[in-house]
From TrEMBL:
<dbReference type="Pfam" id="PF08279">
    <property type="entry name" value="HTH_11"/>
</dbReference>
<dbReference type="InterPro" id="IPR036390">
    <property type="entry name" value="WH_DNA-bd_sf"/>
</dbReference>
<dbReference type="GO" id="GO:0005524">
    <property type="term" value="F:ATP binding"/>
</dbReference>
<keyword id="KW-0804">Transcription</keyword>
<keyword id="KW-0238">DNA-binding</keyword>
<feature type="binding site">
    <location>
        <position position="113"/>
    </location>
    <ligand>
        <name>biotin</name>
    </ligand>
</feature>
<dbReference type="InterPro" id="IPR045864">
    <property type="entry name" value="aa-tRNA-synth_II/BPL/LPL"/>
</dbReference>
<dbReference type="InterPro" id="IPR004143">
    <property type="entry name" value="BPL_LPL_catalytic"/>
</dbReference>
<dbReference type="InterPro" id="IPR013196">
    <property type="entry name" value="HTH_11"/>
</dbReference>
<keyword id="KW-0092">Biotin</keyword>
<comment type="similarity">
    <text>Belongs to the biotin--protein ligase family.</text>
</comment>
<dbReference type="InterPro" id="IPR004408">
    <property type="entry name" value="Biotin_CoA_COase_ligase"/>
</dbReference>
<dbReference type="InterPro" id="IPR030855">
    <property type="entry name" value="Bifunct_BirA"/>
</dbReference>
<dbReference type="GO" id="GO:0016740">
    <property type="term" value="F:transferase activity"/>
</dbReference>
<dbReference type="GO" id="GO:0006355">
    <property type="term" value="P:regulation of DNA-templated transcription"/>
</dbReference>
<dbReference type="InterPro" id="IPR003142">
    <property type="entry name" value="BPL_C"/>
</dbReference>
<dbReference type="InterPro" id="IPR036388">
    <property type="entry name" value="WH-like_DNA-bd_sf"/>
</dbReference>
Length: 326
């Protein structure tokens, strides 16, 4: 009932609709309408009441509310089911707890994360209302070996969103980061549940520093935000919707046609590391090489100091001789 009332308000957004009209459409009492309106307000929806006019829903740009997001999506699967939190420990952790019984395409989003994390268990600073902290649950029918390729799709989608909405020049740092002016603005964490030949689900966690005005001293030289780079506050919802719409198009191409072509073209053409001398950190081992290409499988192809070409599946990559994050 609450969702039906919300839909009626959204259909008339900005215009008043009387409690009597709502009650008649929803076939409940005006008292029930009032109770549901109050519950919607508690969720964060801005609903104005005026004597003899009724209720009207106002545009909300401060929170990433499900209904406000969904009306701007062109997707068929991605984001059709959205679970929103004001605060949570980690969207990835929550997603893993519900993934088995949740439809593919479900989006978990929170205004803040108390224990956000990136690759290798690193902490991810996720202050309230400043960023996009989200996780997608996906259940594609392909073997587990293909799962890691979703990171390239996610990176390409974020790059497209930033480019289209803000016009900022960002670069993709293989395997899972977006950087601007040598500092990290986005991190991607892809995890999966699978058996030897069966993929149960994939979760793609994306954290984007959007309107952060400052960072803790320990990461200030490595992290930036879209606000700091653009010099103006960013509409988080507009950016989020653009990323989700881009993600579904690239994801569908991969699932239905088995191709990463467009995603890889974006990752190659906007790479932070290709053609540069890099240091590859794998566990306790370090190796110097030149980043040559990203393969059709999403692996990093490098030329070692010994002149041998090899492909890197995982690892931390930094550019030799450059200061800052990359």
């Amino acid at each position: 009932m609450k969702n039906k009332i919300l839909q009626e308000l959204m259909d008339q957004q900005g215009q008043y609709i009387s409690g009597e009209a709502l009650a008649e459409k929803c076939k409940v009492s005006r008292t029930a309408i009032w109770k549901h309106i109050n519950n919607l307000r508690k969720l964060g929806y801005i609903i104005e009441t005026a004597n003899k006019k009724g209720y009207r829903l106002l545009e909300n740009n401060s929170l990433l509310l499900p209904a406000e997001i969904q009306k701007h999506l062109t997707t068929k699967e991605i984001g059709k089911n959205i679970i929103h939190f004001n605060s949570i420990d980690s969207t990835n952790s929550y997603a893993k707890g519900i993934a088995d019984k949740t439809p593919s395409g479900t989006l978990i989003i929170s205004e803040e994360q108390l224990s956000g994390r990136g690759r290798l268990g690193r902490e991810w600073e996720s202050p309230k209302g400043d960023g996009i902290w989200m996780t997608l649950i996906l259940k594609p029918k392909f073997p587990p070996s293909e799962g890691g390729k979703l990171t390239q799709i996610a990176a390409a989608s974020v790059w497209q969103g930033i480019n289209k909405v803000l016009g900022l020049k960002s670069l993709i740092k293989w395997p899972n980061d977006i950087v601007i002016n040598g500092k990290k603005v986005c991190g991607i964490l892809t995890e999966m549940s699978a058996e030897l030949n069966q993929l149960h689900y994939l979760i793609v966690g994306i954290g984007i520093n959007v309107n952060n005005e400052a960072f803790h001293n320990t990461i200030a030289d490595k992290a930036t935000s879209l606000f700091l780079e653009k010099g103006e506050k960013i509409n988080r919802r507009a950016l989020l919707c653009e990323i989700l719409n881009a993600f579904e198009l690239l994801y569908d191409s991969f699932v239905k046609e088995g191709t990463l072509k467009e995603s890889l073209n974006i990752c190659r053409n906007n790479s932070a590391i290709l053609g540069k001398e890099v240091i590859i950190q794998q566990g306790a081992n370090q190796a110097k090489a030149k980043a040559v290409d990203i393969t059709e499988e999403g692996l990093l192809e490098v030329l070692t100091e010994e002149g041998k070409k090899t492909e890197i599946l995982t690892g931390e990559v930094s550019i030799r001789g450059e200061k800052g994050y990359i």
